[in-house]
Each structure stands twice: as C-alpha cells, then as structure tokens.
Design a protein that fits this description.
The protein is an alpha+beta fold. It has 21 helices and eleven strands. It starts with a helix and ends with a strand.
Length: 501
Amino acid sequence: MINDSELREYVYKTYWLNIEQGLLFIDKGNKEKTDITNFFRYFLQCKKCEFISEEMTYHRFTEIYNTLGTKEEIDAFYIDALNYLDAYRFLTREKTIPSILKTKFDTKKRFQELEYLNFKLRYLGSDIRLSLFMDIFVLLLKDEIEVEEVIKIFGIFESYIMRLIASGVSISGLNQNIPSYFKRMKDIVKKNNKSYSDAFAHILLSISGRNIFRNNEVITNSLQNNSIGTYVLRYVYYILTTIEETQKDIGNLLRQMTSKEIYLTLEHIMPQTKSDDWRKMIGQDYDRVYDKYLNNIGNLTLTAYNSRYSNNSFKFKKECENGFNYSQLNINKSIKDSDVWTAVEIVSRQKELIKAFIKCFPVPETTIKLSKNNTFDINGIDENKLTKTKTSKIIIEEENETIELYCRDWKEVLKVVANYLYEKDPELFVTLCDDKDLQGTKNRLLGRDKKIATYTANDIVPNANIYFNNNLSANELFKFVKLLLQKYKIDETVSIEFENN
C-alpha cells in the first residue's frame, strides 16, 4: 500500500515483521500460523469504537491507512499498533506477558489474580471482550490507570458474563455493543470525575433488553429452574470451579483441570440413567424428581472417580475409590454428609450453590446516577415531533440476541443503523440505492453516484460506494431510518431510547 519502496522496506522491517512474528502460534496440527487479521480486527475496533466483522477488517484497515500521508504519521500508527499488540498477546496467549506489565504490580499476588482472571475469560472463549480490554491494557501500560482498577473491571465483566450465561442467554450478542464501551467509559470519567471501574459498572447496569445485567432475584430463579447441566460444558466447569475456589486467596483449580494436572469431570449425583436402586431410594416421586432436577445445579458436581461408576447407587458413589466420602472439594461436603440423595437434599444443596454463585459473581455498585431514559418502539414514535430530541441508543431485538447501538443525535442514528444493516446483508443494501421509496419527496436519500447535486454526499458506509443525504431535519432523518429498517423487515423489533431533557 506504500508506493515508496524505501519507506515500504522501512515499515516492513521496523514494524510489520515484528507484528507478524509476535502473532505466530502453533496450531493443533503443529503448523505455524498467525492471527494477524484477528489482531487488526480488534485493534481497528478500538480505533473506530464500533463492531467490525472479519470480512470488513481489510476495508476498515485501508480506510484508516489511506489517510496516513507522511512517515511520521505511519510511525505513529504502528507504534500505537505495537502497544495494542502487547495487550492482545497478553489477553489471547497462555503465559505471554509483556515484561513491562509485571512492573505495574506492587505484589506478586495482585499480578497472579489478574493473570488468572485473564486465563478464565480466555477459557470461556469470550473474544467479545478483546477490544475493550485491549484499550484498558494500553492505559495500564501507559500508567494512565491503576492495576486495582483493571482487576475491578475484569471482575465486573466476569460477573456480567456469568450472570447472562446462568440465565441461558447467548453472549455472542454482545459483539455489536462492546467496542463502543471504552469511548463511553472515557466520556463518563471525564464528565463525572469518576474511576474507570465505576464508569464501566454504570454502563453495564444501564443496559436494557435481553442483555440486561441480571439481578440476584433473576439469577436465583434461573438457577432454581434452568437445566445448566445441558449448557456448554466449559460454562458448567467455570461455575463449579469458581464456587469451589471462593475459600482460597487465589484460585487455580480451573487451570489445573485444563492442564490435566488434576483430573475432575462433571458428575450428575442422581445419574442420567434411571435405575431400580435410585427409584427405591427416592420413592414413587422418582420420575418427577428426575425430570426436574437431573441437570439442576443442585445435582451437579465435580468428581475424580472413574466415569464408569457414574450410574451406580448413591452408597457406592460415596464409598468407592475417590468417591464422595474421600473428596476434598468444598462443593461436595453436603453430599459427603448425606445418607440419601432425594429432592430434599438436591434443593438444599441448590440453595447453597446459588448463594455461593451470587457471592462469586456480584452485581457491581456505581456512584453515577443511572438515567431513566424513555424507550419507544420505532413504530410507536410520532415522526413529526422529534425536533430538539436527543437519542441515546437503538435497541434491536433479534432472535437470539439484543443489539444496542449507541448514538447521540439523529445523524448518528442514521450512521449506526446503516452500518448495522450493511453488515447484516450488503447485497440487499446495495439494491436500496435503486429503490423508488428511498428517492425522497424532494431529494434522493441514498445512491451510488456522489456527483448528483441534489443531495449531500456522505460516505456513511465506508468503502461501499454508497452515499447518503443526511442534510435533513430530525423528523426526516427518523423517517429515513425507519424506511431502511422496514426494507430489512425488522422495524417491529427495533426501539429507540431517548435522553431526558
């Protein structure tokens, strides 16, 4: 992309080669690979403060890179990228820690705490956190945030994610929202003179819709009634090992299980296979108890005994080699102390584990007042009375997720909605350039020719050669947005949140 061969060689040797080598890894087939596209995807999300799909990464890269006109600007771009590379490697690699990071910690214990939290979130497979946490780590590397703050932010995020998971909500739906959080955090910190952790708690507690921060009542109800034994196995391991580790200064059980240093597997105390032994112990209510509690948290634990024992009687499970009577795990104490295992014992243990879950993954506190904004379905808004109104976000309820697009004014509403729809279905969006409904009563609303004099050429969807007329009033912009959503047939699932004046 650099025409000057001397400058191109300088950039390659000084920066690009370091980035490539820093991102090399050995895959499961013992082949050398690099995740350079993934790194730049999240780096660009940090820079743009918006979600960028893997397919759009190159286009977004060229969009920024083409604005760099001098060697000094190129140097600044890559120096910034190398800072983010250190953060990315720490967040995505096992035992890859920038040497400068260790100097930020006053005690070894604090570093171990952060490093283990990072391992656990990596274990979850939650790449959705990367852009936000890369921004946070760059602040840490630049001495612009305290270690304690970073640990708090990790903990708040862990609580939020685990409460969604416990409620049976897919966390993949957070992809669209998280890239905007850091910019919002900085704005809140500056405006309110508060800490980053306080600002982050405020943002998460302000979320509405499907991804709302679950309170203790919702979590209690979910864990009482949900079959978490059918969830993704790593989620169940995460919950049980975290509860087990609450009595230790710094837990390490999940890592020991992952590395096979300790061999523990998920166990249904009342087994998945029905048997006469269990029917006799539980009684005539056995079928109902089985259906209701088999995969309930009260009936799930970790065990070291051989899996072939799992369908045996309760007495056998307690007394066999590595059975419950010999378990050193705190989560198995009530099982060890029980002579029978019926609905009474399951519910009793369920209550213990729910209480422990709430303690492990608490709802954070914020000193920043939570706003009570007004939210309306898009089809219920009076399109002629929007002058001087201010928006805060667009909420899109899809089948398995809630998308929240943050915006401060109606021109930004058009931009974020248009970008979202284009990412959703680019081909459909291109066809709208010729749609008669989008020609407008006076001027064309969007098209592919920026030379047309009847509208202002604004490249709202970068690199798509689609241009918009956003030189419109609030009422006209709303009608434009609503029409786009109608063309995608999702207008009935969209609402807009307004700021109170």
